[in-house]
Amino acid sequence: MILANPHFAKIQASYLFSTIAARVREFSAAHPDARLIRLGIGDVTRALPPACVEAMQKAVGEMGADATFRGYGPEFGYDFLRETIAKADFQSRGADIQADEIFVSDGAKCDTGNFQELFAAGGFTIGVPDPVYPVYVDTNVMAGRTGAAADGRYAGLVYLESDEANGFVPAPPEGQVDLLYLCFPNNPTGATATREQLAAFVDYAHEHKALILFDAAYEAFIRDESIPHSIYEIPGAREVAVEFRSLSKTAGFTGTRCGYTVVPRDCRVFAEDGSKVLLAPLWQRRMSTKFNGVSYPVQRAAEAVFSEAGRRQCRELVDGYLANAKLIRERLQAKGFKTTGGDNSPYIWFNTGMDSWAFFDKLLNEAQVVTTPGAGFGRCGNGYIRISAFNSMQNVATALDRICSIL
Amino acid sequence: MILANPHFAKIQASYLFSTIAARVREFSAAHPDARLIRLGIGDVTRALPPACVEAMQKAVGEMGADATFRGYGPEFGYDFLRETIAKADFQSRGADIQADEIFVSDGAKCDTGNFQELFAAGGFTIGVPDPVYPVYVDTNVMAGRTGAAADGRYAGLVYLESDEANGFVPAPPEGQVDLLYLCFPNNPTGATATREQLAAFVDYAHEHKALILFDAAYEAFIRDESIPHSIYEIPGAREVAVEFRSLSKTAGFTGTRCGYTVVPRDCRVFAEDGSKVLLAPLWQRRMSTKFNGVSYPVQRAAEAVFSEAGRRQCRELVDGYLANAKLIRERLQAKGFKTTGGDNSPYIWFNTGMDSWAFFDKLLNEAQVVTTPGAGFGRCGNGYIRISAFNSMQNVATALDRICSIL
Description:
The structure is a homodimer of 407-residue chains. Chain A has two domains: 6-47 and 309-406, Aspartate Aminotransferase, domain 1, CATH 3.90.1150; 54-307, 3-Layer(aba) Sandwich (Aspartate Aminotransferase, domain 2), CATH 3.40.640.10. Helices cover 36% and strands 15% of the residues of chain A. The first copy, chain A, has helices at 16-30, 50-63, 79-90, 108-114, 134-142, 195-208, 279-290, 296-305, 308-334, 356-367, 393-406, and strands at residues 37-38, 102-105, 126-130, 149-150, 153-154, 157-161, 179-183, 211-215, 241-246, 259-262, 268-270, 276-278, 339-341, 347-351, 369-370, 372-373, 384-388. In chain A, the strands form five sheets. A seven-stranded mixed sheet of chain A has the order 2-10-9-8-7-3-6, with helices on both faces. A four-stranded antiparallel sheet of chain A has the order 13-14-17-16. A two-stranded parallel ribbon of chain A has the order 1-15. Chains A and B meet through helix 2, helix 4, helix 5, helix 7 and helix 8 of A and helix 2, helix 4, helix 5, helix 8 and helix 9 of B.
């Protein structure tokens, strides 16, 4: 008989954002007239930059004529896009990353989820932040690399606790951890890591033959010049780190779908006998076997993000969200809450002083504002709420008026 | 230390089409003036249907205005598309499939590759056709469900041989096989399965508690009214079969990217203790954790495939490729080759009477025509060549003139 993957059953609740969506649907059904404001899931609300729209329209037009039509594209992305990304995102910041080390995909969620396929089924230790973007954990649970869950944590994982004591940036672990998921600017806390903090992880990875999976989906929100945008700004990172990037928040691509993963040519893992195994050929194999490239018009839209007009428009887009973040931060602080994030990130994380699902329900029921309960991101999120700056300034202002009036 | 997945190393050669691409690049570099004609990889060459271009342009325009912008879409696809597909592809043919059983993705290659994640790491037997679309095999090798390869076959897999004796449609296996990959119209042979032949597999799956993964990516090429387009036209298939569909060949979407997978609500696998496990919740979990939906403009283009204009345009597109297929079939037969396919499929499969990579090289070097060596699809492909009808009529005619002149 055909056997189900038994590990799926270990997952504790449905994917966090699906659960929230279900609670919101339930509330809306019971209160059809309520004017909900969504500051929950990190989903952008403003139009795609004109440069991207124009490039995509042009590419769709090309698809409509035999002479300019494009069928299967290169599985790892068109050269025009890989070259543009390597220059704009990395070389311009002094990071030595070449075009053939960039792998274009339909999103960083897919890539962070799929990347674990390149590792052995077991025999090594995984470290995840707490609070954590659930995809890092759930995909390893599904692959059978953890034990059962108890009290919100899975047996076999090492949780790197992020809390007020460490400013929401954990230090490298004390003992041996072989795979480290990091995300800065952080989802959900909005915290950023300094050059020194990242360098400590890079050093750790070299010393412990570990690998860092670095999620930089929110780098476009960094405004403090001293904060690295890429882990490859840290010397030595090429051999020990893979970086995930997304245009979802940078350029409003959540519904358009494009991200990319950087796997440097010399980045390594190990065979059982301790010999080095290069990671790039494994990812190439994975992508050429299970993926068929990103839609051509989407890749042209992505290329336009890096044009002069595209850069300016994306900067304005992000600045708008950062202005919202500032408002959220300031008004919560005025109410006496301690907040993190929102200066170099679109997320504001704050301690509610009560159970976070209860606080989530309170905001939903009394203020008609959707947020994200911190407990959904792990034990260290208990009592916290994540507020997202992705909405119009008007909606954000109204939401804060409502929230402040009930607190 | 971080350990590599050891199973990747078992894969025998790089992905078939990457290998072919490398040989073609090498030839082109040595013969920069050669005018190559590509009848190899099954990649469409004609423009996207006007109805799709128009719908996609409109959707891109919507993305450019705040009021009509769309962020994250539903992970399983927009209702407008799922409902359209359920009606047009299934209900209209008497197959009882509902919209919420359709899962929209960026392609059938991804889905056929990813679906094996829902099964246990081992403890059951996998049957694949020979010759076979390499994705079915390679993804299971990577997941560690096979032993090493020897003489072109992996230990632990059951190969369902397709040859002249069975008209390239194998019967269900004699013994116990728990997971069966089927593809009709077949890639690479072009053979189609009758209702009775499919019914035998459905019966087998019920009797043996097996599951069928049915790849119907080429169903749009069926012109013989008696041949089923979907496995759900067979009574009882809902519980024992998953079906993969693609718009790549139906509507010229190879570079636009959209496919869909059907997982009926009552389709089941089993737990170790023999109890039933429904498959749909597992696929939903997989997709909501590792995927973020298909680009909105692409979903609108996909919807347009099923409009009145879209259907007519797609039919014309496919008819054009079928006319090429007829020409290929007839000219090869006139040269004395026995061919399969090309009547209800875009592929023509024929016995060359020599080693298929040698024949591939002969056609590349002497006729400047790219084909696909049958040996790349498995042991039963030794001696065969697959010719694809995806090109302009002019190019196909020229390629056949060249081929016939050297044979």
